[in-house]
């Protein structure tokens, strides 16, 4: 059985590879390379898989899951500039893929290993990435 908590956060970022020339960065990343940054309304789906607890009828208490996501993701990332404000991305391009990778590892440390953890991060209505640790 899988259950999901959906949370949102807003953040600014800029995709840039400091090892490349300005021209190559502009060519590869396009508008996402805008030097003055741009924002997204990120939607994070956190999926937890496990057995139904016969005493509660829950797989996991979604309030507890929500609190973990608030602490690990919303508090540090919401209304931030990911490149400038968040040490996780000091040397890491904050693409949706890298953001999802960072988030998954932060959540994994807080969720009982008996559960399987999967996340989907929506950067726009049309673009999302999925990560399950592999
Ligand atoms: Ni972007």
Write the layout of secondary structure elements.
Layout: E1 2-13, H1 22-29, E2 38-49, H2 62-77, E3 80-81, H3 82-85, H4 96-108, E4 116-122, E5 128-131
Parallel strand pairs: 1-3
Antiparallel strand pairs: 1-2, 2-4, 4-5
The protein binds nickel (II) ion.
The site of nickel (II) ion has 4 residues, from strand 2.
Task: Give an overview of the whole structure.
The structure is a single chain. The chain is α+β, with helices and mostly antiparallel strands. The protein is built from 4 helices and 5 strands; from the N terminus they run E-H-E-H-E-H-H-E-E. A hairpin with a 5-residue loop joins strand 4 and strand 5. The longest helix is centred in the middle third of the chain and has 16 residues. The chain is elongated and about 60 Å long. The structure holds nickel (II) ion. Nickel (II) ion binds next to strand 2.
Comma- or semicolon-separated keywords:
about 130 residues, five-stranded mixed β-sheet, single chain, alpha+beta, binds nickel (II) ion, 4 helices, Tetrahydropterin Synthase, Chain A, 5 strands
C-alpha termini separation? 20 Å
Strand-and-helix sequence, N→C? EHEHEHHEE
Reported by name, the CATH topology is Tetrahydropterin Synthase, Chain A
Overall 3D geometry?
Answer: elongated
- Count the E strands: 5
Any idea of the CATH class? Alpha Beta
Strand content: 25-35%
Number of DSSP helical runs = 4
Provide the list of bound ligands, each named once: nickel (II) ion
Mean pLDDT: 97
Tell me the CATH superfamily: 6-pyruvoyl tetrahydropterin synthase/QueD
Number of domains: 1
């Amino acid at each position: 059985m899988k259950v999901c908590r959906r949370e949102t956060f807003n953040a600014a970022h800029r995709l840039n590879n400091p090892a490349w020339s300005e021209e190559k960065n502009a060519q590869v990343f396009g508008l996402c390379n805008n030097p003055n940054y741009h924002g997204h309304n990120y939607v994070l789906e956190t999926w937890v898989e496990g057995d139904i607890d016969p005493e509660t009828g829950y797989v996991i208490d979604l309030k507890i899951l929500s609190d973990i996501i608030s602490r690990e993701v919303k508090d540090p990332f919401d209304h931030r500039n990911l490149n400038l404000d968040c040490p996780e991305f000091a040397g890491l391009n904050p693409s949706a893929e890298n953001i999802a990778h960072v988030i998954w590892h932060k959540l994994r440390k807080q969720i009982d290993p008996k559960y399987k953890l999967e996340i989907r991060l929506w950067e726009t209505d049309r673009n999302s990435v999925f990560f399950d640790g592999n």
